Request: fold
Amino acid sequence: MELTVQQFFESGHETLGLKIVGGGPNLDRIIREIALNRPGLALAGFFQYFAYRRIQVIGLAEIAYLKSLTQEEQNERLDKFFSKQIPCIVVTRNRQLMPNVLKRAEAFGVPVLRTAMITGAFINAATIMMENLCSPRVRAQGTMVDILGIGVLLEGEPGIGKSETALALIERGHSLVADDITVLRRDNAGAILGSAVEITRYHMEIRGLGIIHVPSLFGVASMRSEMKLDLIIRLHHPQGDVEDDRTGLAVQYRDVLNTKIPFITLPVGAGRDMAHVVEVAALNQKLKQLGHDAAKELDEKMMMVLSRKHSK
Reply:
């Protein structure tokens, strides 16, 4: 995924304290590599392995080195540096660049940004932000909740009761991640993380009631900004000729961004406490992650009993 300097700036102007120093009209330049680069070797004149596709970070060491050069050497190195079509420069520690640096950045159409963060901290924070921005993602129709550390995505046709089930779980002390639309992304470790669409974050739609603001009603602990997806549950109306799995031995998975996520279906019936059933399903998934599968353990016990009877 390619990222523009504009997207990088908009995502980091608050969290990273980024400000535009120059080259504002050229924020549409493409950042082609996620990693950031400190161009010390390039400024010293060595361009053989120059990572020009990355954001160039200029800190105290780079500025001090440039100041140690003569004016002629500075101009020569800077002309060659900017001619490599770098996406942008970020100056750390709120340092002021020399006028000839800003002049050449403007001439070559290279945006210059500045932050008050120290160089190492900025590179770490910006790398994480870039990975998040460029990670594969997809939107899923469903409501996501956090049940004792297990991220559960509730799916089902409109009106099946996803939001009402989530509301009951929130009242039991669990947390909402996203209602109706959940944004799923894969991190570098292959885990799937779910979050809300920014405009609908903290809100739920309850049929017959309308829109509610969850943290105002249930407190700040009732919301999670992001949660790892551990289980997908599809709520459905029971069909007369189709029987649901009653043992739990038939394990199903859903492919989400090339990652397998456990998937179960739960029938919705009149008088059935779906919040309680979903809560138990999440707790059962937590036990499976700890190495205890109740269905398999019971099946193994039954097989042992049957084998003993046949051996007599």
About this structure: The chain has two domains: 3-134, 137-299. The radius of gyration is 27 Å. The chain has a mean pLDDT of 90.
